[in-house]
Amino acid sequence: MNLSELVYTKLTKVPEGNVTTYSELAKAVGLKNGQRAIGQIMKKNPFPVIIPCHRVVKSDGKIGGYAYGVKIKINMLKKEGIKIQDGKILEWNKKFYKF
Questions:
Q1: d(C-alpha 94, C-alpha 15), whole Å
Q2: Which of 13, 21, 8 lies closest to 96 in space, CA to CA?
Q3: Where along the chain do its domains lie?
Q4: Which helix (H) or strand (E) covers residue 56, if one does?
Q5: What is the pLDDT of residue 1?
Q6: pLDDT at residue 9 in the model
Q7: Which CATH number does 3-94 carry?
Q8: What is the H or E stretch that residue 10 is in?
């Protein structure tokens, strides 16, 4: 399994209604300081409906980027029950998924 496949497989473990961070996902696959690498892998996600890259956010709780636009990412997260205010996840402690 290559790194992208490993990252995508790990990401499918994040339940609907939760988010994880680029750094948490990097750590979960053994990449030290691999946040940027995770971002690049998310950008190339071939199955965005199946592999929920919209659930990966910045460590400060801000939404971060999304290949299809931040507005779409926010809408997808809101549909999963995640509250967002001023581009930031509310109830961070309840919504953050740690591997």
A1: 12
A2: 21
A3: 3-94
A4: strand 56-57
A5: 87
A6: 97
A7: 1.10.10.10
A8: helix 3-11
